C-alpha cells in the first residue's frame, strides 16, 4: 500500500528539527531510519500530517567518547553501531544485541535512537539500554534534558518524550572489560523476540564482581532483573551458581500471552534464557 | 518535491510526492520494473536495492530520502551484456524458480559479500534472513552465493574480476561510523 | 551435417532458459504492465467475519481527486454471477452463490465489499478510506466440530446447515476389501488418534495482479494465474460473455503452489469495471490482502482408527474427516479432501478401509488447493499412525512400514481405494535413504542422549509416501464428478529454417517448462536445444490447455508435446522419403536425420522443413506444413514415491526444535533434468517443513485473521532451514512414454510427517505421544512438561 499524503520536511540541525516539530503540532511524526514507521504508514495504521526527517541532521550520527560514557547519536544506524570500535570496546552488550535486530537491510537504515524512541518492548535494544543504565538526552524548545533509561520507558510504545521533544543522543556508561551476551529467542530468524535476555558481567578471578541483566518483552517496558543481578554479585562464575541466580529472572515481570507464548511460558523462558545468557557472557 | 537521484549510473531529476516510496519511484516513474514489491511490512526483501552502497528495502525508504543518493538495482549489474558473477552463479546453481524474489536476493547477496567476501553456509543463511523465497528451499541460493564468492575473489580471472570490481566499487561507504555513516 | 552421435538432452542438468530475464530484471510480471489511459483499482474489504451490510455510502469517495468510479456489490449484483465451483462432489452438495463483491452480507473478514477505480494507485487507496460501510454483525462460525453439532450457528442461514456435503468410500461396499468395523472389532491392536491439519496460506511471492484491457475486439486479461485457459472458460461461463471475445494471458507468474489455481473475485471485478468504463484497469493486491483474501489451504480434523495384528500387519483403517471449506466453495474446494481419500492407504496393503469426509462452512477465507491438495493431509495422518502403531507394538517404525508395504515384485498393484499403482520400489528407496542418513548411528546417539538425560534430545522421523499425481485421466475425474477432463494439449511447429516452436497448454510459474520441454523436443527431433522455443500462457497462441497444478505438467503436458512431435516426424518422414525417392517404410529416423535403411543416403529434418516451406516438390496430397497438434489423456495417474528421514534436536528446556539432518530419496520415474528435479524437491521440503514447524493461519474469536502479515505468518527464511540431502531411485512410470511420474508435490507431502515424527520421537520417552502442528517451542515445551498450564 501507499501511505496517506503528508507534508515532509528535512531539517539539517537539531534546532531546526525541534522548531519544525513544535510548529507541526501533535500530528507530526519524526522520521528516523523509518524501518518501523514506514510499514505503519503503508498499512495506514497512522496518518501524520507532517513527517520530520532527521536524515540530514549530521550531528545526530556517530559515536564519541565523553569521559566515562559513550555518546551515541540517535540517528546512528544499527549497522554502524555494530561495527563501531568504541561500542565493541566499551559497550559489548549493545553490539551483541544490535547484531540480532531484524535483518541486514533493516540494520542499514534503522537507527539506535529510533528503536529506543519507538519503545516496542519486543525491540532488542531497550533491555540493554536499561541494563547498562544509559541516559537519554532529549532536546525540546526549552533546551536539553536528560532522563535515565529507568524513567524513560513508560509503557507500550510510550516514553518520557513530550510531543514536541526529540531524542538526540544516548549516553552509555562505559562497561570496559565487561563480558556480554544477548540471548534472543524467537520462532524464525526475522521475528521479534518472544523473550530475550541482555546480560553483561564483570568477572574478577573466578567470581562475578558485577552484573547487569535486562529482559526483552517481559512487560510493557523492558525489565531490569535486579534480583538476578543481586544474586550474581559475588557468586562464583559456575553454572550452578548462575542457574540459582537465574531462577529469580521472572520476578517483577508481567508478560503478555499471545499465540507464540503464554505468560507462564515466557516466565519460564526468562529464567532459562537468563541462565544461558549469563553463562555465555561469563565464558565469552 | 524535487529530487535528484542517480540510479544504475544515470542521474534523474524528478518531482515526487513525499509519500512516494523509493520502490514505486523506481518502478513507476523510472520504469525500472526489475525491482518488485512482495509485501507491505518489509519482511520479504524482494524490493532490495543498494542505496549509497548498502542494501535497503526500497519499500521502506521514501523517494525523498534518496535525494542526492546513488541507487543500484538488479538492472544495473550487467556490464556490456555480460552477467555479473552473482547473476551467473544464480543461473549456474539453479538458485531461482519463479524468479520473483531473485532481484532482491541477488542484491542482498552482493551486499553480504561486500561485508564478508568468503562466508560459510551459516553466514550466508544469516545474511539472507531478510529475504524470503517460496520456491527453492534456499539450498541452491546458498550454493550460488558461495560459488559467486569464489569467482569474485582475487585470482578468479580478469573478466570476472572486472565485472565484480565495478559493482563492488560502488560500495563506497564500507567504513566505520566515524566517517559519518551514509 | 553432423555425423557424430549427439549427447542426449534428456537427463542432462541443463541450466534454465527462463533464467536470463529473471536474473536481470527484464521480467514481465502482470504488475509491470502499463497501458495508455490505464486506471488503478483498489478494493475495500470487510473488517468483520460475518455481518449484514446495512448501508454503503460512497458519495464522498466518488468526489475525490482522480476517482473515476466506485463500485459496490449492488452495482454489479446481476452481472457478476456466482464464482465458479467446478467440483460438485455429491449430487446434493450445498453450494451457496458466491459473489465477487459482497451484496447483502459478508461471510469472512477480507471479503471484497467495494472497489474504487482512480487515475493513480494512491488516489484509489485514498478514496477507500472515504467509503462508509455499516455492518450489523452476526454470530461467527469458526470451529468445525461446533459447526456440525446440533443447533450450531450458521454460516449461511438459508442452507439450514454448515455441512456442504459428506463423501464416503467403503471397501466392503466397493468390493475392494473387507468390512472395517469387523476389522476393528477383531483387531489385536486398535489405535485411535485425532490429528489437526492447521490452516495454511500458500503465500506465493508475487502478489496476485490483474490487468484488463477492454479496448480491443477481444477483451484481454493479464493475470498472475496458474490457469489462463480455465480462467477464460470460467469467465465466459460465469459472466455470460462469449468465450471467443476473451483473451487471457499469464505472463511471468511468480509462484502459485495451488494458490493461483483459482478464478478470483478480483479478476471478475476488474473485468466488469474495465468493461463498464471502456478503459484498461489494473489491480495488484497488497501482501496483507493476499494473506487474508487469496484462498487458504489444508484445515482438516482427521480422526483415524487403525486395527492391526500383534505382528504388525494392518487389518483395517477407518478415516473420518472434517474439512473446512471456509465461507464459500471456490474452484475445486470441495474436491481437495476427496483427493486424499485415495491416499490414506498410501504404500500399504490395507485389507479393509472406510473413508468419510464432511465438508464444513465457516466464516473464514475459502480454502482450496495448496501444494499437494489433499494428499499431504492423508500422508501426514497415515505416517503418524504408522509411528503410533510401532510404539503400540514395540516395533521399529521402519519395520512396521516394511511389514505392510507393497513389495516391488507385486506391481502393478490395485489398492483398497481402487487405484492401480503401476510401478515402484519402496525397498530400494528406503535402503538408500537409510544409508545416506546414517540411520543406525543416529539411533545409537539417540539412545545415548536418552540414557544421560541430555537437555537436548534427538529424534528420528520417518515418512514414506506415494501420491496420485499427473492429475489427468479424464474418465477417472469424471467418475469423481469433477467438472472437466484432465487431458493436455500441445502443438509442435517446424519453421522454414528448422527452428521449432512448441506450444504447450501447461502454464508454468517457476517449474522450468521452457527448459525441460526444449530438452525433450531437442532429443525427439534431433535439433539443438537452443533451436526450440516454448510458447505458453496466452490463449491466443496456446488456444487449448488445462494448465499447471497437481504435478501434471510433465506427465500429461510434456506427453502431449511428445505426441505432437511424433506426428511432425511422421509427416517429415513422408516428405523425406519423397526427397530421397524411396518408400516411407524404408526411411529410418534418428538424431534428426532421415536415412534410407541400409544406405548412407540421408536428409536432416531441418532441411526437410525448408523443403516443406518451398513446397516445390511435395508428394501428392501432402500439405506444405510441418505443424502438428496433439492432445494426451493418460490411462492412469502416476505414482511417485519416496522415503524421507529427518533428525531433529529438541531443546527440552525451551521446546525449540532444530532440524539436524534431512535425507530424502524420491522415485519420480525417469528424470528429464536433474537440476530442476532437485530444485523442486528442495522447495517442496521447505514448504512441508514450514507446515510442521512454523506456519499457521490463526483467527481470533471474532474471526479476524491474526496472522495477516508476514510479521505473523511465519514463512521461513534461509536462516530457519537446513541443507537437505537428496537422492533418487528410478522405476519408470508405465503410463507414459517418458516414464515420468511428477515431482512438484513430493517434497511437501513427505516432509511434514517426517519432521513431526522426529519431534515426537525425540520426546516420546518423556511421555509425549503427539504435538499439534505447527510444533512451536511452546507446544513442544508444554507437551514435555505436562500439557498447557
| Named CATH architecture of one domain in chain C | 2-Layer Sandwich
The largest sheet of chain B, given as strand count, sense and whether it forms a barrel, is: 5 strands, mixed
Mean pLDDT of chain B: 90
The share of residues in helices of chain C is 25-40%
What Rg of chain B do the Cα atoms give? 16 Å
Major pleated sheet of chain C: 7 strands, mixed
- By DSSP (H or I, 4+ residues per run), the number of helices of chain C equals 22
CATH topology label of the largest domain in chain B: DNA polymerase, domain 1
**Assembly type of the shown chains?**
heterotrimer
Strand order of the largest sheet of chain B: 2-1-5-3-4
CATH structural class of the largest domain in chain B: Mainly Alpha
Overall morphology of chain B: globular
Main interface by residue count: B-C, 55 and 56 residues
Strand content of chain B: 5-15%
Q: What's the CATH class of one domain in chain C, please?
A: Alpha Beta
Distance between the ends of chain C? 78 Å
- Under CATH, the topology of one domain in chain C can be stated as Aldehyde Oxidoreductase, domain 4
Number of helices of chain B: 6
CATH superfamily of one domain in chain C: Aldehyde oxidase/xanthine dehydrogenase, molybdopterin binding domain
Amino acid at each position: 500500500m501507499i501511505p496517506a499524503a503528508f507534508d515532509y520536511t528535512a531539517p539539517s540541525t537539531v534546532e531546526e528539527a525541534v522548531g519544525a516539530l513544535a510548529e507541526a503540532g501533535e500530528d507530526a511524526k519524526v522520521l528516523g531510519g523509518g524501518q518501523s514507521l514506514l510499514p505503519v504508514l503503508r498499512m495506514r495504521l497512522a496518518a501524520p500530517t507532517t513527517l520530520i526527517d532527521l536524515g540530514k541532521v549530521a550531528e545526530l550520527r556517530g559515536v564519541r567518547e565523553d569521559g566515562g560514557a559513550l555518546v551515541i547519536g540517535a540517528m546512528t544506524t544499527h549497522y554502524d553501531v555494530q561495527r563501531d570500535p568504541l561500542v565493541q570496546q566499551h559497550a559489548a552488550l549493545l553490539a551483541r544485541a544490535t547484531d540480532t535486530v531484524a535483518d541486514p537491510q533493516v540494520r542499514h537504515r534503522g537507527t539506535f535512537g529510533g528503536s529506543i524512541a519507538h519503545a516496542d518492548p519486543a525491540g532488542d535494544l531497550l533491555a540493554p539500554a536499561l541494563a547498562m543504565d544509559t541516559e537519554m538526552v532529549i532536546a525540546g524548545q526549552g533546551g536539553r534534558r536528560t532522563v535515565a533509561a529507568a524513567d524513560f520507558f513508560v509503557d507500550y510504545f510510550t516514553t518520557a518524550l513530550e510531543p514536541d521533544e526529540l531524542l538526540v543522543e544516548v549516553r552509555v556508561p562505559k562497561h570496559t572489560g565487561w563480558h556480554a551476551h544477548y540471548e534472543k529467542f524467537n520462532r524464525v530468524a526475522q521475528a521479534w523476540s518472544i523473550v530475550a535476555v541482555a546480560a553483561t558481567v564483570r568477572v574478577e578471578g573466578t567470581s562475578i564482581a558485577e552484573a547487569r541483566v535486562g529482559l526483552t518483552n517481559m512487560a510493557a517496558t523492558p525489565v531490569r532483573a535486579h534480583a538476578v543481578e543481586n544474586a550474581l554479585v559475588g557468586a562464583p562464575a559456575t553454572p550452578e551458581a548462575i542457574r540459582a541466580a537465574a531462577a529469580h529472572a521472572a520476578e517483577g515481570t508481567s508478560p503478555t500471552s499471545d499465540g507464540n507464548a503464554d505468560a507462564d511460558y515466557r516466565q519460564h523462558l526468562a529464567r532459562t534464557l537468563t541462565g544461558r545468557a549469563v553463562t555465555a557472557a561469563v565464558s565469552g | 518535491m524535487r529530487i535528484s537521484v542517480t540510479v544504475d549510473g544515470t542521474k534523474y531529476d524528478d518531482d515526487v510526492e513525499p509519500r512516494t516510496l523509493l520502490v514505486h519511484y523506481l518502478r513507476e516513474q523510472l520504469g525500472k520494473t526489475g525491482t518488485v514489491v512482495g509485501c507491505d511490512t518489509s519482511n520479504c526483501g524482494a524490493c532490495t536495492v543498494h542505496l549509497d552502497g548498502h542494501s535497503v528495502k526500497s519499500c521502506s525508504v521514501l523517494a525523498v530520502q534518496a535525494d542526492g543518493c546513488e541507487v543500484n538495482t538488479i538492472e544495473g549489474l550487467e556490464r556490456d551484456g555480460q552477467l555479473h558473477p552473482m547473476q551467473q552463479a544464480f543461473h549456474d546453481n539453479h538458485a531461482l524458480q519463479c524468479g520473483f524474489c531473485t532481484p532482491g536476493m541477488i542484491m542482498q547477496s552482493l551486499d553480504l559479500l561486500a561485508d564478508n567476501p568468503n562466508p560459510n553456509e551459516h553466514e550466508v543463511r544469516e545474511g539472507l534472513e531478510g529475504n524470503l523465497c517460496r520456491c527453492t528451499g534456499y539450498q541452491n541460493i546458498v550454493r550460488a552465493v558461495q560459488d559467486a564468492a569464489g569467482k569474485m575473489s582475487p585470482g578468479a580471472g580478469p573478466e570476472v574480476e572486472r565485472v565484480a570490481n565495478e559493482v563492488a566499487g560502488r560500495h563506497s561507504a564500507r567504513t566505520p561510523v566515524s566517517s559519518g555513516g551514509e | 551435417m553432423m555425423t557424430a552421435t549427439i549427447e542426449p538432452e534428456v537427463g542432462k542438468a541443463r541450466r534454465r532458459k527462463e533464467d536470463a530475464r529473471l536474473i536481470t530484471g527484464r521480467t514481465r510480471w502482470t504488475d509491470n504492465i502499463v497501458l495508455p489511459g490505464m486506471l488503478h483499482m483498489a478494493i475495500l474489504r470487510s473488517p468483520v467475519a460475518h455481518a449484514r451490510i446495512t448501508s454503503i455510502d460512497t458519495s464522498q469517495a466518488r468526489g475525490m481527486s482522480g476517482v473515476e468510479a466506485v463500485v459496490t456489490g449492488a452495482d454489479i449484483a446481476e452481472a457478476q454471477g456466482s464464482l465458479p465451483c467446478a467440483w460438485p462432489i455429491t449430487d446434493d452438495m450445498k453450494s451457496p452463490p458466491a459473489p465477487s463483491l459482497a451484496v447483502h452480507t459478508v461471510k469472512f473478514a477480507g471479503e471484497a465489499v467495494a472497489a474504487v477505480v482512480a487515475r493513480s494507485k494512491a488516489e484509489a487507496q485514498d478514496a477507500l478510506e472515504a467509503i462508509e460501510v455499516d455492518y450489523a454483525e452476526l454470530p461467527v462460525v469458526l470451529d468445525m466440530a461446533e459447526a456440525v453439532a446440533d443447533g450450531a450457528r450458521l454460516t449461511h442461514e438459508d442452507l439450514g446447515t454448515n455441512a456442504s456435503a459428506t463423501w464416503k468410500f467403503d471397501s466392503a461396499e466397493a468390493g475392494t476389501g473387507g468390512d472395517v468395523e469387523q476389522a476393528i472389532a477383531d483387531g489385536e491392536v486398535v489405535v485411535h488418534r485425532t490429528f489437526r491439519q492447521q490452516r495454511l496460506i500458500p503465500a506465493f511471492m508475487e502478489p496476485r495482479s490483474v490487468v484488463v484491457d477492454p479496448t480491443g475486439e477481444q477483451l484481454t486479461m493479464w493475470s498472475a494465474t496458474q490457469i489462463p485457459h480455465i480462467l477464460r472458460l470460467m469467465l465466459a461461463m460465469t459472466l455470460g460473455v462469449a468465450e471467443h471475445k476473451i483473451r487471457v494471458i499469464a505472463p511471468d507468474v511468480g509462484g502459485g503452489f495451488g494458490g493461483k489455481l483459482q478464478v478470483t473475485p478480483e479478476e471478475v471485478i476488474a473485468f466488469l469495471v474495465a468493461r463498464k468504463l471502456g478503459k484498461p484497469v489494473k489491480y495488484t493486491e497488497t501482501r496483507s490482502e493476499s494473506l487474508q483474501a487469496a484462498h487458504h489451504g489444508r484445515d482438516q480434523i482427521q480422526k483415524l482408527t487403525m486395527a492391526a495384528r500383534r505382528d504388525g500387519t494392518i487389518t483395517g483403517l477407518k478415516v473420518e474427516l472434517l474439512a473446512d471449506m471456509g465461507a464459500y466453495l471456490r474452484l475445486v474446494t470441495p474436491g481437495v479432501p476427496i483427493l486424499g481419500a485415495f491416499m490414506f492407504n498410501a504404500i500399504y496393503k490395507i485389507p479393509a478401509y472406510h473413508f468419510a469426509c464432511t465438508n464444513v462452512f465457516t466464516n473464514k477465507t475459502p480454502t482450496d488447493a495448496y501444494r499437494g491438495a489433499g494428499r499431504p493431509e492423508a500422508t501426514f495422518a497415515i505416517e503418524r499412525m504408522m509411528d503410533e502403531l510401532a510404539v503400540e507394538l514395540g516395533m521399529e517404525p521402519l519395520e512396521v512400514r516394511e511389514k505392510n508395504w507393497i513389495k516391488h515384485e507385486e506391481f502393478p498393484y490395485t489398492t483398497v481405494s481402487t487405484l492401480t499403482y503401476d510401478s515402484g520400489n519402496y525397498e530400494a528407496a528406503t535402503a538408500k535413504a537409510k544409508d545416506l542418513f546414517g540411520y543406525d548411528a543416529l539411533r545409537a546417539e539417540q539412545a545415548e542422549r536418552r540414557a544421560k538425560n541430555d537437555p537436548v534430545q534427538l529424534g528420528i522421523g520417518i515418512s514414506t509416501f506415494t501420491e496420485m499425481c499427473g492429475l489427468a485421466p479424464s474418465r477417472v475425474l469424471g467418475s469423481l464428478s469433477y467438472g472437466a477432463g484432465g487431458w493436455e494439449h500441445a502443438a509442435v511447429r517446424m519453421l522454414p529454417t528448422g527452428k521449432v516452436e512448441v506450444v504447450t497448454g501447461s502454464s508454468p510459474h517457476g517449474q522450468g517448462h521452457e527448459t525441460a520441454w526444449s530438452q525433450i523436443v531437442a532429443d525427439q527431433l534431433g535439433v539443438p536445444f537452443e533451436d526450440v522455443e516454448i510458447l505458453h500462457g496466452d490463449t491466443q497462441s496456446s488456444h487449448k490447455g488445462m494448465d499447471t497444478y497437481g504435478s501434471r505438467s510433465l506427465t500429461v503436458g510434456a506427453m502431449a508435446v511428445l505426441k505432437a512431435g511424433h506426428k511432425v516426424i511422421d509427416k517429415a518422414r513422408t516428405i523425406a522419403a519423397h526427397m530421397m525417392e524411396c518408400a516411407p517404410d524404408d526411411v529410418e529416423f534418428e538424431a534428426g536425420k532421415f536415412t534410407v535403411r541400409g544406405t548412407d543416403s540421408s536428409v536432416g529434418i531441418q532441411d526437410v522443413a525448408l523443403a516443406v516451406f518451398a513446397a516445390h516438390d511435395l508428394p501428392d496430397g501432402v500439405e506444405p506444413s510441418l505443424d502438428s497438434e496433439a492432445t494426451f489423456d493418460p490411462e492412469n495417474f502416476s505414482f511417485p514415491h519416496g522415503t524421507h528421514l529427518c533428525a531433529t534436536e529438541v531443546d527440552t528446556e525451551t521446546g525449540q526444535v532444530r532440524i539436524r539432518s534431512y535425507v530424502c530419496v524420491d522415485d519420480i520415474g525417469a528424470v528429464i533434468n536433474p537440476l530442476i528435479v532437485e530444485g523442486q524437491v528442495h522447495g517442496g521440503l521447505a514448504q512441508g517443513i514450514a507446515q510442521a514447524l512454523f506456519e499457521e493461519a490463526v483467527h481470533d474469536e471474532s474471526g479476524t485473521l491474526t496472522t495477516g502479515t508476514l510479521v505473523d505468518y511465519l514463512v521461513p527464511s534461509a536462516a530457519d532451514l537446513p541443507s537437505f540431502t537428496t537422492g533418487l531411485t528410478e522405476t519408470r512410470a508405465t503410463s507414459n512414454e517418458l516414464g515420468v511420474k511428477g515431482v512438484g508435490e513430493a517434497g511437501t507431502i513427505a516432509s511434514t510427517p517426517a519432521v513431526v515424527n522426529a519431534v515426537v520421537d525425540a520426546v516420546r520417552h518423556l511421555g509425549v505421544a503427539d504435538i499439534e502442528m505447527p510444533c512451536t517451542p511452546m507446544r513442544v515445551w508444554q507437551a514435555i512438561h505436562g500439557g498447557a498450564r
